[in-house]
Amino acid sequence: EAGVVQSPRYKIIEKKQPVAFWCNPISGHNTLYWYLQNLGQGPELLIRYENEEAVDDSQLPKDRFSAERLKGVDSTLKIQPAELGDSAVYLCASSLGGQFLGGVNEQFFGPGTRLTVL
Amino acid sequence: QKEVEQNSGPLSVPEGAIASLNCTYSDRGSQSFFWYRQYSGKSPELIMFIYSNGDKEDGRFTAQLNKASQYVSLLIRDSQPSDSATYLCAVNEGGTALIFGKGTTLSVSS
């Protein structure tokens, strides 16, 4: 079974330029997450999708960040314009979603996109 | 602000020893607790999860949960150099979102 796929793996841009990241979740996983991970920190949730609906985007800086998950499968995260502080690893994860008594399903992470803003 | 706290380390243990990694969380309503391992430059991979108070064992790994103390730990027995990585504690805060700690770096020397 293929895992979570992300592209590109690395991206170097100059500040004020736009950038986009793409994610393809594990087949059948209806929940998709975008996380940001700074060096020496744990992942921080940016946005969570249940199918095509963004159900938690409270941590997404909406002035410059946008995301979409058309048709409830692939997702794209965009930054426009990028700032120096956006340099980080952007991780996509997916899960079967939903909850069951006492817990939630595990999340599987993609390899991430390492963004460097110069 | 809901928080997950971990000692950043590094935690250094000799090969064959037991490594003990600790995590505390602030939200008493948390239900699910996960330990992820992250090698340098790689993405997190799930090692174990635990939902009920007590111990859960899987091979060389044991997760321990004490909800009254809001404490979860990971024990690695017979530590190997290949266990050297950053270990992330993650807590389900509600819905399906996870809050991650900053991670503890483990170094196992041969």
Describe this structure in words.
Chain A is an all-beta fold. Helices cover 0% and strands 50% of the residues of chain A. Chain A is built from no helices and 13 strands. In chain A, the strands form three sheets. In chain A, strands 2, 4, 5, 6, 9, 12 and 13 form a seven-stranded mixed β-sheet that branches. A four-stranded antiparallel β-sheet of chain A has the order 1-3-8-7, with no helix packed on it. The model of chain A has no long low-confidence stretch (mean pLDDT 92). With 110 residues, chain B is mainly beta. Chain B is built from no helices and eleven strands. Chain B has strands spanning 4-6, 11-14, 19-25, 33-38, 45-50, 54-58, 61-66, 71-76, 85-94, 97-100, 104-109. In chain B, a hairpin with a 2-residue loop joins β6 and β7 (61-66). The A-B interface holds A 31, 33, 40-45, 48, 55-56, 91, 95, 97-99, 102-112 and B 4, 8, 31-32, 34, 42-46, 49, 51-52, 88, 90, 92, 95-103.
What is this structure's SSE topology?
The complex is a heterodimer of chains A (118) and B (110).
Chain A: E1 5-7, E2 10-13, E3 19-24, E4 31-37, E5 44-50, E6 53-56, E7 65-68, E8 75-79, E9 88-95, E10 99-100, E11 103-104, E12 108-109, E13 113-117
Parallel strand pairs in A: 2-13
Antiparallel strand pairs in A: 1-3, 3-8, 4-5, 4-9, 5-6, 7-8, 9-12, 9-13, 10-11
Chain B: E1 4-6, E2 11-14, E3 19-25, E4 33-38, E5 45-50, E6 54-58, E7 61-66, E8 71-76, E9 85-94, E10 97-100, E11 104-109
Parallel strand pairs in B: 2-11
Antiparallel strand pairs in B: 1-3, 3-8, 4-5, 4-9, 6-7, 7-8, 9-10, 9-11
Strand fraction of chain A equals over 45%
Strand content of chain B: over 45%
What structural class do the secondary elements of chain B suggest? Answer: mainly beta
Query: Low-confidence parts of chain A, pLDDT < 50 over ≥5 residues?
Result: none
Number of strands of chain A: 13
Shape of chain A: globular
Largest sheet of chain B: 6 strands, mixed
Work out the helicity level of chain A: under 10%
Low-confidence stretches of chain B: none
The structural class of chain A is mainly beta
On the 0 to 100 scale, the average pLDDT of chain B is 93
- Tell me the radius of gyration of chain A: 14 Å
> What is the residue-mean pLDDT of chain A, rounded to a whole number?
92
